[in-house]
Amino acid sequence: MEVRGLRKRYGDLTAVDGIDLGIRRGEVFGLLGPNGAGKSTTVEILQGNRSRDGGEVSVLGTDPAKGTRAWRSRVGIVWQDESAPAELTVRETVRHFARYYPAPRDPEQVIGLVGLEQKAGSRIKELSGGQRRRLDVALGVIGGPELLLLDEPTTGFDPAARRQFWDLIRMLADDGTTILLTTHYLEEAEALADRLAIVSAGRVVAEGEPAALRERHGTDTRVEWTETDGTPRVTHTKTPTRTVIDLTQRFDGEIPGLRVSRPTLEDVYLRLTGQEDAR
Amino acid sequence: MTTTAARTRAETTEIRFPSAWSLGLARGAMEIKQFFRMRDQVVFTFAFPIVFLFLFASIFSDDIDSAGITASQLYVPAMMAAGIMSTSFQALGISIAIERDEKVLRRLTGTPMPPAAYFLGKIWLVLVTGFLETAILLLVGTTLYDVKLPSDVGKWADFAWIFVLGLTACALLGIAISSVPKSGKSATSVVVLPFLVLQFISGVYISINTIPGWMLNIGALFPLKWMCQGLRGVFLPDSARVLEQAGSWEFGRVALVLGAWCVGGLVLCLLTFRWKNRRDG
Fold it and tell me: pLDDT tens digits, residue range B89-106?
């Protein structure tokens, strides 16, 4: 998948302001950014569900705006806000959607893959929010897609459900599916993505492997301690060991309230998206 | 044997998509299943014209001397026409607007389902519900209000084409009007008002011979008036022709207007149908 100089305006608002992305086959790519950064608009354009004002997009070798039936059968989509036919059962719905595809996966196997075996005979209206989201994923992968586009798949999940969902995404990735997911949860991007792009105000502000991003954009190490009169002190340094040795000598032994922290991806993220004050 | 082997090879190398027709059947089966699982919707969809038939035909039951029928008999074909329009125009107009609002349509656009399969599925649904509605109304009409089933095969053939053309025209108009409401919430009011007005000026609630001519002329622009008229022609004795504006059943003109609305409705749908909400761009 290749994206070059993607642009989209809604009236006066520029939602996407020149995004470049390159996603390799078999990779899990995370598109990370705060709400309103342009993630969903980007994904909707990649799905072929929204027009663009500028830029070049190629998804599986095709411009999504001209996506054919054959192309749509190779791309699986999990939208941000979905709804499924409430009166049908999970099994009926998955079986029905399988009929749309030329070479679908086995419906029972897909129901098992998303962990809904116990609920296969239940009507969709009886499912919990997390179970519905699993059904959304089941419908996204039933056609056996080469590429899966997930738009904020775990918004509104409790932590346990989110971790189960991550396992599901990893399973699909191990299966060879290329996955693009958007999220505003940093831990999610870090846990799942081989590479990620941080998007802010319609632009990519950083791109790369999570560890590399942390190294490249990381701030200095943070050293915290408490003075003898009780005043908390903080310093940022490139040589934390040196700082600690100096402090050890000054305090002649234990340093009260010592804390040394490496920059986290969260620091990088907040700094790059201009939300540093939020800390 | 060699031809079979060759075909199998061809099938494995090129992608073969299921046809729009077979997917339309699958969607129809699914739509019907969904419809009948929503008990309250089933009851109200079917009950509405039946309750109105019961009310009107029981309140107005006097003999219409000049026509040789009772007012009750007049309401049976009228309510059958309204029943066909409510199961097609009203049901589709509201349900598609809601499906669009709840992103059911958008999800379909992300699959390789051909759009025609969606519309075919809806047509199957209204064929089944429209047929049931008509059958029930006919049952009530013949048992309670002395309507005679025609013994002539030709009349049943007339009934068949009036039913199919009327249902198709109204279904297409229902699909078209579903794009008018801004949201699923406002769909009911947007769809019901024109339907209600049409029922008054097409001779459903009020006898055709008492509606002012200019109103009837407006009603005559739409399918409902002609569906009522055609069904009167099928189920009422020919002596009742005197009540008609033209003094005859005008089957030819009924077919022409309904056929024209089928074509016009299809064009309208193709030009205006939206798979997404306006705010979804």
Answer: 999 999 999 999 988 999
Per the CB < 8 Å rule, is A85 touching B281? no
- Indicate whether A9 belongs to any domain: yes
Overall residue count recorded for chain B in this entry: 281
**A–B CB contacts, 8 A cutoff, strictly below:** 74
Rounded CA separation A142/A76 (Å): 8
Q: What is the pLDDT of residue B280?
A: 64
| Co-location of A72 and A181 in the same domain | yes
Per the structure, the complete domain to which residue A234 belongs is given by: 220-262
Structural domains counted in chain A: 2
pLDDT at A239 over 90: no
- In A, minimum Cα distance to B21 occurs at A100
Q: What's the rounded Cα separation, in Å, for the pair A273 and A196?
A: 14
Residues A191 and A251 in one domain: no
Q: Report yes or no: B53 and B136 within 8 Å, Cβ to Cβ.
A: no
Give residues 219 to 278 of B whose Cβ lies within 8 Å of A: 276
Give the CA angle between residues A232, A237, A243 to the nearest 5°: 70
Residues A168 and A240 occupy one common structural domain = no
Contacts of A70 in chain B (CB under 8 A): 15, 17, 112
Query: Tens of pLDDT along B24-74?
Result: 999 999 999 999 999 888 888 888 889 999 999 888 888 887 888 998 999
Question: A228 and A184, same structural domain?
Answer: no
How close is the nearest chain B Cα to the Cα of A173, in Å? Answer: 21
Token digits for B142?
A: 């013949």
**In this structure, are A105 and A151 located in the same domain?**
yes
Reading the block at residue B59, the tokens are 């309140």
CB distance from B115 to chain A under 8 Å?
no
Q: Which residues of chain B have a CB within 8 Å of the CB of A83?
A: 102-104, 107
- Model confidence at A279: pLDDT above 60: no
pTM of the model: 0.85
Are A47 and B110 contacting, i.e. CB atoms less than 8 angstroms apart? yes
Distance from CA of B184 to the nearest CA of A (A): 14
Inter-chain touch B112–A72, beta carbons under 8 Å: yes
Contact assignment for A72 to B37 by CB distance below 8 Å: no
Segment B151-162 shows an average pLDDT of: 94
